[in-house]
Amino acid sequence: MKSDYVGKIFKISFPFTDSNPVKFRPALAITEPDDLCDIKFIFISTRNTKSSSRLLDIPDGLLPYKSHLHLDKIFLLPKKLIEKELSPVPENFLAEVLRQLTLADVERFYHEVHGRVNSREFIAGESRVNYAGRVFDEKEMVNLVDSSLEFWLTTGRYTEKFERDFARFIDVKHCSLVNSGSSANLLAFMALTSPKLGERRIKRGDEVITVAAGFPTTVAPIVQYGAIPVFVDITLPTYNIDCSQLENALSEKTKAVMLAHTLGNPFDLATVKDFCDRNNLWLIEDNCDALGSRYLYDGNWCYTGTIGDIGTSSFYPPHHMTMGEGGAVYTNSSKLKRIVESFRDWGRDCGCPSGKDDTCKNRFKQQFGELPFGYDHKYVYSHFGYNLKVTDMQAAIGCAQLEKLPGFIKARKDNWQRLREGLSSLGDKFVLPEATVDSEPSWFGFVLTVRDDASFSRDEIVAFLEQSAIQTRMLFAGNLIKHPCFDEMRVGDTGFRVVGGLENTDAVMNRTFWLGVYPGMGREKIDFIIERIKCFVAAK
């Protein structure tokens, strides 16, 4: 649509500049005249004043002198004040002006709306103590809107930036962004079924060692593919795999170990990795609840998710950082990275990023399967894949969150430690959590197991805390084998194996719950949780 005024610099008679009743100034029109013939103008000056923090340089050649656009000086003026048109500005410059104004409005919206909510005073017993939540400021919202203004929508510049910066943060070679942590687990597992891996590929009927005390999407890909999950028990108070059962779980069909770091507490990576290496097994680390946790491996502190063959993360709002929905798969293997992204991107063989063609310069020069020679490589499929890509708008949020991640990790550690110290006198009532040896957890939650000789049940204390406006959560599935999704398999005694008893897994199912430690809690909420738990125990 043709604009008569928008995007043009005019000479305007400003009636309120300096001490003169009228002074002519250049100004950029950013609206057409309204019903009252008023136009919004942005002030232009030759002075780069320190009082104005939001300036854009006017492109050279448009005015006879070096000039600056003051984005924070917008005036609604009558059209009649226009003396004459001076110059139109380039389209890309106008777009940048309008983008900057929009983002300024977004920033103002955050401070006037979300900022007020986030600064509300905590009132014990009335304010809700959530187990998790989004912690964000204007930067996430500005990034989100900035990405949407481009309207690229699918993976783009923010995705590329996030993958690069995230990989650098955890010190891994490759990061592939996906649409959820569950998708990340699916891709991590399915990558190991690729024919490109030869004899090491996981085939239907092969076995994967895991635990039943966790989140179902650690196990779901194994079952969905037709492999056999082999369940072993966990140990308390770490809530991770009982490594003494690994050898008992091993069979000639075992191909992999797939485990989560429970609530941020790393499992015994040294033992598990040694077991995998000795038996030529793949290791998938479900790192969705443990981003920022570290483990002392071979004398070096390494982030969890980077020691096994593949690691996964989730960016769902309750997790260590968020992009609404989102996840990541990461690895140090270039081969596995290519396979992961093939499964993620419809199963295609081509590795060109979205919107780019023929980066290998062999698009029409190769032979695949029984296709005609030179068949378009962009439409060659080496796997039966999915579309699990993330949008660039999600990645934009993630880029802002990633900058905050070190602070998030520290806050989680501090909150967990304050809870642990505050409840240390209740070890006769609860199994109190402990970090795995040689680990530095980035805690997702504070887990408590009611002792079997306690004078109260888990249900009683959970009900009390919920009535006190304190959110609680079960340790995910408790014992996944007991759930309806396992009914047919359990009745038919097929599709899975259990090694030894699952006594601790059942204890978790019956007596365990956990509380939040997320960065948005603050000391007053942590102290309220401690006070309420002590009050409940004292009454029993």
Share of helix among residues? 25-40%
CA radius of gyration is 29 Å
Determine the mean pLDDT: 95
Q: Kindly report the spatial arrangement of strands forming the biggest sheet.
A: 7-17-16-13-12-8-9-21
* Global shape: flat
Number of strands: 22
User: What's the helix count?
Assistant: 13
Low-confidence stretches: none
Would you tell me the structural class of the helices and strands? Answer: alpha+beta
What does the main sheet amount to?
A: 8 strands, mixed
- Spatial separation of the terminal alpha carbons: 74 Å
Textual characterization of the structure:
Strand 8, helix 5 and strand 9 form a beta-alpha-beta unit. The strands form five sheets. This protein has an eight-stranded mixed sheet, with helices on both faces. It has a six-stranded antiparallel sheet with strand order 4-5-3-2-1-6. A three-stranded antiparallel sheet has the order 15-14-19, with no helix packed on it. The chain is 32% helix and 20% strand. It is flat. Helix 9 packs across helix 13. It is an alpha+beta fold. The protein is built from 13 helices and 22 strands.
